[in-house]
Amino acid sequence: MRQKLKDIFHIFKSFKNFILVTHLNPDIDGIASMLSVHLFLKSLNKKSFPVVEKFPENVEFLFSSKELILIDKFNLKLKNPAIIVLDAHSPERLPEKVYQKISSSQTFIIIDHHQLDNKKRFSGKEIMLIDPSAPSTTFLIYKIFKKGNFAITPEIAQNLLAGLYYDTGCFKYENVNKKTFLVAGELCNLGAKPYQIAEALFENISLKEIETLKIVLERLEFLKNGVIAISYLTYEDIQKLNSKNLSDFANFLRSIKGVKISALVKEVEKNIVSVSLRSRIPIEVVDLAKSFGGGGHKYACGFKTKVKDFFEFLKSFKETLRNYYGN
Questions:
Q1: What is the SS3 string spanning the chain?
Q2: Quick one: which of 14, 123, 160, 227 has the most CB atoms within 10 Å?
């Protein structure tokens, strides 16, 4: 760990250009991680480019969110940029257009708190700081800044706390421990305002989200005597509602009393299915996600796969869930 930090600090100091990226359909932790590092690099008078495939919803409250750059509009040819991959650790987790833009680079820093898998790597020489025990990627970024004695502004602290608050589900998930609260307290001392984050994240539900939740609940089905909750959204649903951040509804289904595994099956493109999986301790679902080429956390993960027919897959996956819980 010490050598990795030295290598990261050296890159911070010696490189001029940085491209920051995160995973497909980024959540608050992914975006907050990007913008925290972006603000930090700017404070060092570095050129920083936080690149996304599309602008995510509900990130306007994060500092410097307006500085996110669409990959289709990012045409700069940078000499020897350092790539910082946040909240992901394999090319398969990035939007294809984003990966194409950075794939020829030689210098990669990976900062992530998801379980390491055996998927393709970026350069083979990347500096990987991965800790699945960390409650969020922003938690790891805070630790890096603290180890380097770097100044953390109130804006950076606010973004870091937002990622921590979101990825712990308001400090209610299994990844929360004493260290989580200590870091949250330190970020508050540095200027973060928890009430602003809570209001932006959990008291800001759009009508689209309400309409989407209504459909999810109408199609809700319980398996294995209520232990498994599953629902779905078709491609037509998603196009009509223009819904985003759909994995959050899998969290909602898991919150139902008696449910130990929840799944939200979404046809995000024609014949492309994305599945969000959630579970309660001690039942882990990450192996199920990996069996379909996905990954994530032990109790919160997912996968994307091609199918011939959406409803045939849905029927088959219900049986897969029944068998998985029975093992």
A1: CHHHHHHHHHHHHHCCEEEEEECCCCCHHHHHHHHHHHHHHHHCCCEEEEEECCCCCCCCCCCCHHHCEEHHHCCCCCCCCEEEEECCCCHHHCCHHHHHHHCCCCEEEEEECCCCCCCCCCCCCCEEEECCCCCCHHHHHHHHHHHCCCCCCHHHHHHHHHHHHHHCCCCCCCCCCHHHHHHHHHHHHCCCCHHHHHHHHHCCCCHHHHHHHHHHHHCCEEECCCCEEEEEECHHHHHHHCCCCCHHHHHHHHCCCCCCEEEEEEEEECCEEEEEEEECCCCCCHHHHHHCCCEECCCEEEEEEECCCHHHHHHHHHHHHHHHHHC
A2: 160
From 28, 61, 302, select the one nearest 165 (Cα to Cα): 28
- Reported as a single tens digit per residue, the pLDDT across 53-69 is 988 888 999 999 999 99
Section 263-277 average pLDDT: 94
Confidence of residue 116 (pLDDT cuts 50, 70, 90): confident
pLDDT digits (tens, 9 = 90+) for 160-217: 999 999 999 899 888 899 999 999 999 999 999 999 999 998 888 888 888 999 999 9
**Domain 207-326, CATH:** 3.10.310.30
Residue 244 has pLDDT above 80, yes or no: no
Residue-range domain boundaries for the chain: 2-202, 207-326
pTM here is 0.87
Contact between 298 and 113 (Cβ < 8 Å): no
